[in-house]
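In response to reviewer comment 3 from the previous cycle, which asked for concrete evidence that the modeling workflow produces usable outputs, we include below a single protein chain processed end to end. The sequence was submitted unchanged, and the resulting structure tokens are shown without manual editing.
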Amino acid sequence: MRIAVNTIFLQKNNLEGYGYFVQEIFSRLAKQFPQHEFIFIFDREYDEQFIFSSNITPIIVSPKARHALSFKYWYDVKLSLALRSIKTDVLIQPYGFCSLTTNIPQLLVLHDLAFKHYPQFIPKHHLYYYKAYTKKFLAKATKIATVSEFSKNDIIQHYKTDAEKINVVYSAAKNIFIPIDISSQQKTKEKYSDGKEYFLFVGGIHPRKNLMNLLKAFSLFKKWQRSNMKLLVAGRLAWQYDDIVEKLKSYKYRDDVVLLNYLPEEELANITASAYAMLFPSLFEGFGVPVVEAMQCAVPVITSNVSSLPEIVGSAALCANPTDADAIAKQMLKLYKDESLRSKLIEEGKLQAAKFSWDKTADLMWQTITEIVADKKL
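The workflow returned the following structure tokens.
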């Protein structure tokens, strides 16, 4: 087989959700199936670190595709033209967009429909593109993969897509997210939180991640408990971050909040494994990788009771209404005061995290790819 993969989010020193998803899956599949050729399609100069094995052939299709007009031109004109000279059996589209002009069977990976639920948090030009084309992408795709049963049902509900067309492949945490010893934890705390215990939030500083309500909850917790607990925020400054950064300047407990911005994954793994608990009160997630990373590190989790998050954490975390700062704070206090509960959640969390792995996700993706190719040959 010749398998073309859209790899435009594989960017050195700038890997995030989409990029990690592609890296983890296709580094495995390329090595696992050396008899097949993988065509990696970039929209700019690429780094050799992403050419994982000798059966990968990289090509560059310019210009860069990062805005609504460039999306349309890149996917439907430049990508389609480039693929005419490459005989491929299937085209993997991991970022929610398809080419509407190619006849190559496409596997569309649609992680979530956040734009349907929280359009106010999406840049207008992106929102227009999602609204105008998502239905067409779903119809054009030969198969669809998504990362939770919640997202599958969401797609079916909003677009009446045939359930048989959608496979749930899940996502996972990287293998470097593991428990670390107490000495290593203390070194991390000395480096980032003045040696104090800390709650950790991981995610872009973006309205959908609900950091404002988390800060309100942290204030309540500090008021009720009067502890020296810190709050570490690890994530890049994303869209609409100005308001949050400005409010932090006058935040009562600003000296106890540490903004870490984007971190190398090895450092993020250490910070996660050293946390007292992970706080992830996101308003909407198709999967929610940080909660699995925390559980895999033997760190208890407090998260939202909405979207995919209850599905992903099962009974191994405390959940709260993400719009209710008081409810989030009460779960923080509950965890802080009950060490036996914290120990129970740690043990249950390790078992829950074990249900997700990149090996399993890669296997499920491969099954979907082979289904497409088999149907093509009929």
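The CA atoms of residues 186 and 311 lie 32 Å apart. We consider this sufficient to address the reviewer's concern, and the full set will be provided in the supplementary archive.
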